[in-house]
Amino acid sequence: MNAIEFTTELSGTSALPIPSEIAAQLPKAGRARVIVLLDGDADDLEWQAAACEQFLRDDAPEDAIYDSLR
Fold it and tell me: What pTM was computed for the model?
């Protein structure tokens, strides 16, 4: 399976705009799986950051190397 990724602006209609340069890469026929990912709201981002902080809080000293990956 191949993946083509792009971002687009939703306008409140039932149509999902596909940029022309992306549309040119699509085959003329066949099946496709479509997955729509939406930007998370601020509450979700805050929750994720707090969960990560809590998860890493009680790390053993030898796991300190991973702190630079945040």
Answer: 0.48
